[in-house]
Amino acid sequence: MANYIWDGGGSDNNWNTADNWDVGSGFPDDNNDRAIFNGTSTKDCTVNVTTTVGRLSMDSGYSGTITLGAALTIDDAGSHAGSFELSQGTFTTSGSNYALTVDGKTEIATGGTLTCNDSTCLFNSTGTAGGIVFTGNGGTFTAGASSDITYGSIWCYNGASVGFTASGTNTVNSYFGADIVRFTANSVEGNMGPLTITTTGTNNKKLFFGDANVFNVILTPTSATTYILGDDGHSEIGGSLTINQYATLNTQISGADKNLTVAGNTGGAGTLTLNSSTYTSSNGHLSMTGTVTIGTSGVITGVDQLGETSSGGMTLTCTGSPTLGCRRWRQLASKWTPATSTLKVEDGTFSFQDASYGVPYNFEIDNGSNTNELAGTFNVTNNLTITSGTLDTTSSNHALTVGGEVSIAGTLTGNASAITI
After folding, report:
1. pLDDT at 118 over 90
2. pTM for the structure as a whole
């Protein structure tokens, strides 16, 4: 076992030049070796030969750049833990996209920059020591659009404000503590996606997306696993959310409901448990082939299509009085438990009827100047509210029955229909 300190005494920048290291003979090339870069020399280094070490430390005082000219493995099978500490300076896999494998934890501190370009990189994949861990404000991680990065986990300590851009393929397959991804609110500049999470476990695994611009999150464990939103108050997904078989995403942690924003579509054969949270979309679909449950004070809003009729349809179970806001209602009656929920039309001109899509408990039209028509007999168990827009029974004179009260601030066009209140 040996510690090698980079002193830059050689005539070139090469890793395998013995005169560049304080030992004076040889260079770090074994999983029992530790390579140290500090204020002894700020000379740049090129890893010009395929190399394995047990630990790599870029300590405070080193302002240079380490560039891969060959593959590098930081191995935990020797006398070190396979860790990579990047406190200062820049590490890059180069434009040639050499591979980087770190068996242990990669820690990026305030002055550290890690650039993976379009490389294939593994950071504590399948391990629980921590994949990428930001330990302070100002650390930076960048990977290109053709990169393929696998992490054991991704962590920002104590709301660290970091730069994180990983535009290629990202997979998280383990966890650190109970956390898989931990980006707290206002902590991240950059974007990430798509992100595939394959972490499997019997305990709840936490996801903290915060304000990170995460695209196309895919939860795809190989056995039953529950993922829960972290306690920073909200999570935002800039693209789509897929909850595959065996996966459950729960929006409640320690009894507190956390809001979820998904700009695109949410689908998959798993389970989304919304509790009393607010689910917000930017005109995407909430149309799983699995199960969605929503509780008493829960709200779904901004959704284009709510429900799914293909592949057996989506199971939608309401408890209490949640609000189901959408533009188009596509929920099969046979798989809907409405409880005392309100089905709210927020936009569009979708037509309604009892056949196939069921009977709402409360029904509200609040869609501006748009008109919703009846396409068949339509029943409302309790109250009908027209806040804005028009409900038209059409010239076909479809029957409308309301079991409770009717409140009209918009327009009800009854034609010659049988209307029972």
Report:
1. yes
2. 0.91
